[in-house]
């Protein structure tokens, strides 16, 4: 799992814990965006003309009642410059949370064993 994929999983996990977003879970990817899964995939694979380098991401504003450190972690993982994105070991040291710990440790083990 790459660090960006990790951040999307983290986003979706925190989105699902939001009461306001519960009705959207299992229906639409990326939370409250008014897009079908097919439209999201199309947008990721084919960015709009004139903006070929724009990376498509869910809206962080959709994470109601989410701890600030989670949104900071997600933002770090979404940095445009790949060299500036943290790896899983850095995330483990930087963000102390049971869910981040569990996912990062699992990803680190998988990377170490590959």
Question: Overview of this structure, please?
Answer:
The protein is built from 5 helices and no strands. The chain has one domain (3-112). The chain has helices spanning 3-16, 37-45, 68-77, 88-94, 98-112. The protein is globular, with a radius of gyration of 15 Å. The protein is mostly helical. Helix 1 runs antiparallel to helix 3 and helix 4 runs antiparallel to helix 5 (98-112).
Question: Outline of this structure?
Answer:
This protein has 114 residues and is mainly α. The protein has 5 helices and no strands.
Features:
single chain, 114 residues, mainly alpha
Describe the protein's topology.
Elements: H1 3-16, H2 37-45, H3 68-77, H4 88-94, H5 98-112
Helix pairs in contact: 1-3, 4-5
Low-confidence stretches: none
SSE sequence, one letter per element: HHHHH
For the sheet with most strands, the description reads: none
The pLDDT mean sits at 75
Structural class: mainly alpha
Query: How much of the polypeptide forms β-strand, as a percent range?
Result: under 5%
The number of helical segments is 5
């Amino acid at each position: 799992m790459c660090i960006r994929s990790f951040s999307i999983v983290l986003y979706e996990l925190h989105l699902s814990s939001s009461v306001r977003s519960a009705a959207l879970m299992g229906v639409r990817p990326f939370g409250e965006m008014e897009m079908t899964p097919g439209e999201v995939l199309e947008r990721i694979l084919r960015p709009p003309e004139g903006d070929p380098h724009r990376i498509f991401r869910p809206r962080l504003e959709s994470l109601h009642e989410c701890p600030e450190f989670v949104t900071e972690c997600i933002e770090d993982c979404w940095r445009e410059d790949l060299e500036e994105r943290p790896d899983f070991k850095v995330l483990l040291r930087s963000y102390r949370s049971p869910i981040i710990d569990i996912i990062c440790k699992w990803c680190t083990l998988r990377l170490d064993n590959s």
